[in-house]
Amino acid sequence: MAFVDEITLRVQAGAGGDGVVRWLHEKGKEFSGPAGGNGGNGGDVYAAAVRDMSHLSVYRSNSVIAAENGKDGGNKSKHGANGVDTDVVVPIGSLLTIVSGARKGRTYELLKEGERIKILFGGRGGLGNEYFKGSRNTRPKQCTPGKIGEAAEVKVELRLIADAGLIGMPNAGKSSLLNALTAAHAKVGAYKFTTLEPNLGELYGYILADIPGLIEGASEGKGLGHKFLRHIARTKIIFHCISLENEDMHHAHEIVRTELSAHSAELMTKQEIVVLTKKDIATPQVLSKAKKEFENMGIPTLVVSVLEPSSISAFKKEVVKVLKAL
Length: 326
Ligand SMILES: Nc1nc2c(ncn2[C@@H]2O[C@H](COP(=O)(O)OP(=O)(O)O)[C@@H](O)[C@H]2O)c(=O)[nH]1
Ligand SMILES: [Mg+2]
Fold this sequence. Notes:
The chain contains seven helices and 16 strands. It is α/β, with parallel strands linked by helices. It folds into two domains: about 5-160, Spo0b-associated Gtp-binding Protein, Chain: A (Distorted Sandwich); about 165-325, Rossmann fold (3-Layer(aba) Sandwich), CATH 3.40.50.
């Protein structure tokens, strides 16, 4: 299923129940007093954040998300029950914008798991005739209807809060690494342009994002770079993957850094760690030369092969150490 990172939902808060006109019926006394109850309030709509990054896909077939209406008042002074509230459930990192209705233009950002914000109010319940009873009005015949609930179109944009982004040239091994480090199932291919959507994985509570190559998008003229940069805007660190297959590791590094700077000056300022991938195919000489080259530039450098379990477990420890220190 395609990853949904933007969707517009039609959302409806509940209407209030109506107030009613009712009379007490005491023995031998017809209509002895007003006893119509108030209507219940309509349910409110909340936005609620969950950790499931792919949650927006559940809304693709739902046309309207609605809270329950309040119940009408009853006899014997019984008030109607309030309508049940409802939640628009969105992944952490979602930005909600109300695009129509009375609250048009309001925005809400959900950054914490379990965070819940009221975005639309249900209508108040109407008043029953008992409410209008007074010394001058002992037999009120009036009641009021419930108010309608607020309705709006709500645009949800997901901005992933990845702790770390994996970047690099196509084929650098980014998706393979994400899969090896986390329970993600990113597509892996020996050809370019495999990854056209950001893949996410979780490593001991840290979110890692496999960012489709900036080069991949740019060279295809798809402008994917920009779309995905939105997701890594909050990333604290960049793991720059460079395959040891490259003839010139330094050049490969430069190409990606240049592309990155063209898209986002902000990303250039993030902490960078070079990850030399596919260690299994490199000679010790190539490996140590490459490592030295980057370390001489002052860039911390790690080495890994997804084909060697011991390499992966050592690498995991290094990555967690780095993430904890952020
Ligand atoms: N020998 C070897 N091949 C790897 C390693 N990691 C990835 N590959 C291969 O390199 C190719 C590109 O990998 P992929 O993860 O799709 O790269 P991405 O384009 O950066 O996401 C695939 O054929 C992988 O099987 C590794 O550690 N060793
Ligand atoms: Mg990939």
